[in-house]
Specification:
There is one protein chain. This protein has 889 residues and is of the alpha+beta class. The chain has four domains: 185 residues, Jelly Rolls (Sandwich), CATH 2.60.120.430; 157 residues, Jelly Rolls (Sandwich), CATH 2.60.120; 131 residues, Ribonuclease Inhibitor (Leucine-rich repeat, LRR (right-handed beta-alpha superhelix)), CATH 3.80.10; 181 residues, Transferase(Phosphotransferase), domain 1 (Orthogonal Bundle). 20% of the residues lie in helices and 25% in strands. It is built from 15 helices and 42 strands. The strands form nine sheets. Strands 1, 2, 3, 7, 10, 13, 14, 15, 19, 22, 24 and 42 form a twelve-stranded mixed beta sheet that branches. Strands 34-38-39-37-36-35 form a six-stranded mixed beta sheet. A five-stranded mixed beta sheet has the order 25-26-28-30-32. A hairpin with a 3-residue loop joins β36 and β37. The protein is globular, with a radius of gyration of 31 Å. Bound molecules: 2-acetamido-2-deoxy-beta-D-glucopyranose (9 copies). One of its GO terms (molecular function) is protein serine/threonine kinase activity.
């Protein structure tokens, strides 16, 4: 969704389309969203001859919309109607696909003021539980397209529109095209389309049926080029099957000794690119003529002396992704000095790697809960998409076990209490084999209580009270370790004869009543506390937020909430509202507890409530916060706003969903353990964030609390440094500005700062050294049970043997290069040098780390070499010389 090559990525209607002979489109899914099913559906779209049908059978929610009447003729028919979603946070299409096969997935969004609000909608598009793209109409773009090549891991594909702000998500078309599976293979991750061009002076774009996979090829040409073309047939039968029409023209540089250059840039400097360059020689060469050129990527030769085959497609691609320094990418074709003719280029596709780290919920659980949903006709708006993940969109009434992102979550709690259920207890429940609690109370269920419930091993709690169930409660349900609540079913009995039908109170029922009395009492107490909170002198209320929902709170997700858009300062009651009354703790950082929250325009946020002890006398709060809000860097967690109301001080940050580096080293908190290459990338990014604080901010800023738990990971696993700068003048007390009480975390604390009380950037470098040691070893920073309790002493002692493996994290399973490990170790030790003068600067650290990362990428690519060679064939060239992809230097 970035503009590249100076062109918009979208283009529809009003231009002619090449039409080829009709081909089989049986396997395609082409949905014209918002088309009422009673209008002619499916219909054949006039230009492409694609059969579009209404989306009604693939989604249960949303409303039909239509672009503004006077603009209809700007768009082809499929883009004129749309489906929009005023209700619910997540609305999903559910489509059937072939597991394990590569698919082209394309969604198209044409706003055209369908709602008359003339706003710029902004919302997220999810693939199952993972973010795919943010759809943003900022800048009045006409249409937005998201497209990727993806191999589904199950036969069902969920494509969800997620509301992230105040605007309403919508969608115009959704298209799925199964592809061959011997093309577009990646190391890991899927391919998000960046652009796909063919080189021609015409204005026509190519789609189905010219392209049998219905990839859309947009025309592109530069003034310094000349077009060549042929009317002869070009053989396109390689595994990529580039459309013949795209191969029948090509660009050559007009100045025949100049290179042919394609450049683009992206603000996502860490993008990893895969490209596929399609060539065919389409001129009849004279005897003495030759066309031969080198291909370079960011100035490095990646393929030398390439000769495009005559009238036959040839595709060049790299097996592993490339990166671009500073976001500026350049692909050049440079004529060799043997060649008499300039280089030629037919078509080019560029994709970025997109990772979908969160696994979908266990497939059997998903099918089971969907069957239950159908059986009981449950139509809750949240019951769409993946049942368990992302956690903030979990279906109402469910809880799930989520060990780590790579393990499919399991459903552990199902609460359908007061849901108007009728009929019998469904056996669909049987297939939820990890279910621990089941609450079916307060419904109109009839029939007998089925046996299987007692045989579900994991079940420990069943509530079937207040229904119309009858008969005997099966023996199996009276097992130990299973709590059963069954009162309020007049026809149900525990044992023996069910007659006479005089109401009989079971022991469980008594427990329940006692419990409910107790709960009411607690409730009254809590309410009293909550009401007392209104009095600002109530200490308890000041120090800790109330932990039980009180009345009279609007939640950020509800339409009633009216928190304004780009506002920075929030009241305490808005903080309560956005955190849903401090419901979910997501961490405990320096100076306070961090809560999860939701704020219309930002989606999820993290709210740090500064504890009272740390806020005492914190006079410079506002000035400092204003300064922090101006710091923006891709590897720093941004501060969005704050609350400064009496004794209530809170900071509102962007929410970074994937835990912290510490968790991904230890595997705690259900996090996946990351490999050496990923560790290196994460520390490069964290170091860049820190370097920015030291050298890019005016005035320079010292972080003061660099540690692995402050290195957070976002949905794409990008490192984001948290909690910076906060302690700059914190808390003042009776000491002067810079020499405050020692802030920071023990173990990470610069011993020189501790001695001298003088704080410099080099104190951060020390802490960063400790982070590097942790990353290498996964050892605690301080462990009193070790003979050498501090990590620097411990590694120094252990590594005396001369064997780096003695300190390396065993979880890495020796999958790293020992030279690289030594380099990082040496770097860490120089950062953690006792004397600040002998420590490197963060800029030097960044340079060194990047070199290590580059050689790690090279190493991994070398390991892949065997595989690649097997795959190259006459029609495609796989680039194996991977030195071509140094990461950003
Ligand atoms: C959707 O929202 C409309 C109002 O915007 C409301 O009338 C309707 O009942 C809602 N539907 C559901 C299923 O919540
Ligand atoms: C795709 O791969 C599967 C095996 O994974 C193979 O059976 C199938 O034939 C392949 N399909 C195509 C179109 O190559
Ligand atoms: C195209 O090339 C392939 C192999 O390179 C060959 O098998 C096929 O017959 C050719 N097709 C045409 C139409 O020439
Ligand atoms: C053609 O390109 C070459 C190499 O880039 C350059 O030296 C030369 O000046 C160019 N000629 C013209 C006429 O632009
Ligand atoms: C991309 O490159 C062009 C030309 O070099 C430049 O004008 C533009 O500012 C760059 N954009 C970004 C985002 O770097
Ligand atoms: C083409 O690549 C080869 C091998 O890297 C190199 O020796 C040669 O100088 C290159 N030629 C040009 C014109 O860049
Ligand atoms: C170009 O060719 C000449 C000989 O024909 C050779 O001496 C020279 O090294 C070549 N230059 C490059 C850059 O390859
Ligand atoms: C089920 O949800 C209801 C409210 O919707 C709640 O009162 C009840 O405690 C929940 N049951 C369990 C077992 O959590
Ligand atoms: C339980 O799952 C199996 C397949 O895993 C399926 O065959 C069966 O029909 C399911 N049972 C119910 C009651 O849904």
């Amino acid at each position: 969704m970035e503009s590249s090559l100076g062109l918009l990525l979208v283009l529809i209607s009003s231009v002619a389309i090449h039409i080829g002979q009709a081909q089989d489109q049986k396997e395609f899914i082409s949905l014209d969203c918002g088309l009422p099913a009673n209008e002619l559906s499916p219909y054949k779209e006039a230009h492409t001859k694609l059969l579009f049908s209404s989306d009604e059978n693939f989604i249960q929610s949303g409303k039909n919309g239509r672009v503004q009447a006077n603009r209809e003729r700007e768009f082809l028919k499929p883009y004129r109607t749309l489906r929009y979603f005023p209700n619910g946070t997540r609305n999903c299409y559910s489509l059937t696909v072939e597991k394990g096969r590569n698919h082209l997935i394309r969604a198209f969004f044409t706003y055209a003021n369908y709602d008359g609000f003339d706003n710029n909608p902004n919302f997220d598009l999810y693939l199952g539980p993972n973010l795919w793209e943010t759809i943003d109409f900022q800048g009045q773009v006409k249409s937005v397209r998201a497209e990727m090549l993806h191999i589904p891991t199950s036969n069902s594909l969920q494509i969800c529109l997620v509301k992230t702000g105040t605007t309403i998500p919508f969608i115009s078309t959704l298209e799925i095209r199964p592809m061959g599976n011997d093309s577009y293979v990646t190391d890991s991750g899927s391919l998000n389309l960046f652009f796909r061009r063919y080189f021609t002076e015409s204005k026509n774009y190519i789609r189905y049926a010219n392209d049998i996979y219905d990839r859309a090829w947009l025309p592109y040409f530069q003034t310094e080029w000349t077009q060549i073309s042929t009317t002869l047939q070009v053989n396109n039968s390689n595994s990529y099957i580039p459309p013949k029409d795209a191969l029948s023209t090509a660009a050559i540089p007009t100045n025949s000794s100049a290179p042919l250059t394609i450049q683009w840039n992206s603000s996502y400097v860490n993008n990893q690119y895969y490209f596929y360059i399609h060539f065919a020689e389409i001129q009849e060469l004279k005897k003495k003529d030759s066309r031969e050129f080198n291909i370079t990527w960011n100035g490095k030769v990646i393929l030398s002396s390439f000769i495009p085959p005559k009238f036959r497609a040839h595709t060049v691609f790299a097996e592993s992704p490339g990166t671009c320094d500073g976001g500026d990418c350049s692909l050049q074709l440079i004529r060799t000095n043997r060649s008499t003719l300039p280089p030629l280029l037919s078509a080019l596709e560029v994709y970025t790697v997109i990772q979908f780290p969160q696994s979908e919920t266990n497939e059997i659980d998903v099918i089971a809960v969907q069957n239950i949903k159908i059986t009981y006709g449950i139509s809750r708006i949240s019951w769409q998409g993946d049942p368990c993940v992302p956690q903030w969109l979990m279906w109402d009434g469910l809880s799930c076990s989520t060990t780590d992102m790579s393990t499919p979550p399991r459903i552990t709690h199902l609460n359908l209490s007061s849901s108007g259920l009728t009929g019998t207890i469904t056996d669909g429940i049987k297939n939820l084999t990890s279910l621990e609690t089941l609450d079916l109370s307060n419904n109109n269920l009839i029939g007998e209580v089925p046996d299987f419930l007692g045989n579900m091993k994991s079940l420990v709690f069943i509530n079937i009270s207040m229904n119309d169930l009858s008969g005997l409660i099966p023996q199996t349900l009276q097992r130990k370790g299973l709590k059963l609540f069954s009162q309020g079913n007049p026809g149900l009995c525990l044992s023996g004869s069910c007659l006479p039908p005089k109401p009989k109170s079971f022991p469980v029922a008594i427990i329940v009543s006692v419990l409910s009395v107790a709960i009411s009492i607690i409730g009254i107490l809590v309410l009293t506390l909550v009401l007392r909170k209104k009095n600002p002198s109530t200490v308890a209320a000041q120090r800790r937020p109330p932990s039980i929902s009180s009345v009279n709170v609007t939640y950020a997700n509800s339409p009633a909430s009216s928190i304004q858009t780009n506002k920075r300062s929030f009241t305490y009651s808005e903080v309560i509202s956005m955190t849903n009354n401090f419901q979910r703790v997501v961490g405990e950082g320096g100076f306070g507890i961090v809560y999860h929250g939701a704020l219309n325009v930002y989606g999820q946020v993290a709210v740090k409530l500064l504890s009272q002890s740390s806020t005492q006398g914190y006079k410079e709060f506002k000035a400092e916060v204003d300064l922090l809000m101006r710091v923006h860097h891709t590897n720093l967690v941004s501060l969005i706003g704050y609350c400064n109301e009496g004794d209530h001080l809170a900071l509102i940050y962007e929410f970074v969903p994937n835990g912290d580096l510490r968790q991904h080293l230890s595997g705690k908190g259900g996090r996946s353990i990351i490999n050496w290459g990923t560790r290196l990338r994460i520390v490069v990014e964290a170091a860049s964030g820190l370097e920015y604080l030291h050298t890019g901010c005016i005035p320079p800023m010292v972080h003061r609390d660099v540690k692995t738990t402050n290195i957070l990971l976002d949905e794409r696993f990008k490192a984001r440094l948290a909690d910076f700068g906060l302690s700059r003048s914190f808390p003042v007390g009776n000491e002067s500005h810079v020499s405050t009480i020692i802030a920071g975390t023990s173990g990470y604390l610069d011993p020189e700062y501790y001695r001298t009380n003088r704080l410099t950037e080099k104190s951060d470098v020390y802490s960063f050294g400790i982070v590097l040691l942790e990353m290498i070893t996964n050892q605690p920073v301080i462990d009193q049970s070790r003979e050498k309790s501090h990590i620097t002493e411990w590694v120094g002692f252990e590594v005396n043997s001369g064997d780096i493996r003695s300190i390396m994290d065993p979880n890495l399973q020796e999958d790293y290069d020992s030279d690289s490990a030594w380099r990082i170790f040496d770097l860490a030790m120089s950062c953690a040098n006792a004397s600040s003068k002998r420590r490197p600067s963060m800029s030097q650290v960044v340079v060194e780390l990047k070199e290590c990362l580059a050689s790690e990428i090279l190493r991994r690519n070398m390991m892949n070499r065997g595989r690649m060679e097997a795959r190259s064939s006459a029609e495609v060239t796989v680039l194996v010389d991977t030195e071509m992809f140094p990461v950003a230097r």
